[in-house]
Amino acid sequence: MKVTVSQIQHTGDIAIMSLQPKSGTTLAPYEPGAHIDITLDQGIIRQYSLCSADSNEYRIAVKLEPDSRGGSKALHQIKVGEELEISEPRNNFELDYHASFYVLIAAGVGIAPIYSMARSLKARGAKYTLLYFARSEEQAAFFDELAQEHQDALIPVFGSGRRDVQPALYRRLLSQSPDDTAVYVCGPTGFMDTARSVAAEFLAKERIHYEAFEADPEVLHRGETLSFVVKFEGETYEIPADQSVLSVFDAEDIPVLSSCEEGTCGNCVMRVVGGEPLHRDSVLSDQQHKDGYFATCVSRATSPELHLERINRRR
């Protein structure tokens, strides 16, 4: 659907953009952690987490990446009044409301989905703490809003040495938290690795949730890269060791929605109905892997043959 950019605010290298529906249309509701796809020129598709307070608009935070492949740079050139093509919200980072306490951890632009979660938890009267890491207060997106809305829960950590205090801060907080505490973390890969590692000292793996904006190199190169065969919609396709399922499907003109091509967005996911997959994505949960979900852009097979089918989902 088409939306209009109604407002843009800049905080450091982050542009906070408000998107409003065209006349006669409405925006679909969404749950905390959800994101939208934005389709730009040349068919570039990028995902951005939603963090709106107003149901009549969507709000996203776009960090200008130095090595941008076109997405963030293009959006930072957008002006108020221009239109964007977006998808309906999808959620790969769902908030579980059954914990007795929540630890929300964000760094940089990772605050976007975490902010949405904090707002929802506060509205429900849930107990939570929000740790927000940034280079400085001036570069911390949404900081004034967060300080006003979540002053009793917010712990800001600013400065170049902020990562040095991470482990001790996490341990002090989690050592006093109940066993059913839920941790949600979003930010750069190294930042999240530290948070997840310390959290695992105190909590079961299923209590620790994260959303990756970039691929984990270790996961991307997990296992041995071998050629295999894919059976899909009655046809058989050879997948060479140096190509992905997605790239082979693209070459065969098989339409598959894709964006990141590194296992972080979930757009190209299909379902395995036969064979043994080798998962290399950073977006699907262990349960989703068990349910057969398969990222065609990076994941492979340990069996000679893999049977795939499309997943019917509303976009």
Automatic annotation (TrEMBL):
SUPFAM superfamilies: 2Fe-2S ferredoxin-like, Ferredoxin reductase-like, C-terminal NADP-linked domain, Riboflavin synthase domain-like. Coiled coil: none annotated. Keywords: 2Fe-2S, Dioxygenase, Flavoprotein, Iron, Iron-sulfur, Metal-binding, Oxidoreductase. PROSITE patterns: 2FE2S_FER_1, 2FE2S_FER_2, FAD_FR. This is Phthalate dioxygenase reductase. CDD domains: fer2, PDR_like. Its EC number is 1.-.-.-. Its cofactor is FAD. Gene3D superfamilies: 3.10.20.30, Nucleotide-binding domain of ferredoxin-NADP reductase (FNR) module (3.40.50.80), Translation factors (2.40.30.10). It is an enzyme of class 1 (oxidoreductase). One of its GO terms (molecular function) is 2 iron, 2 sulfur cluster binding. InterPro entries: 2Fe-2S_ferredoxin-like_sf, 2Fe-2S_ferredoxin-type, 2Fe2S_fd_BS, Beta-grasp_dom_sf, FAD-bd_FR_type, Flavoprot_Pyr_Nucl_cyt_Rdtase, FNR_nucleotide-bd, MRET.
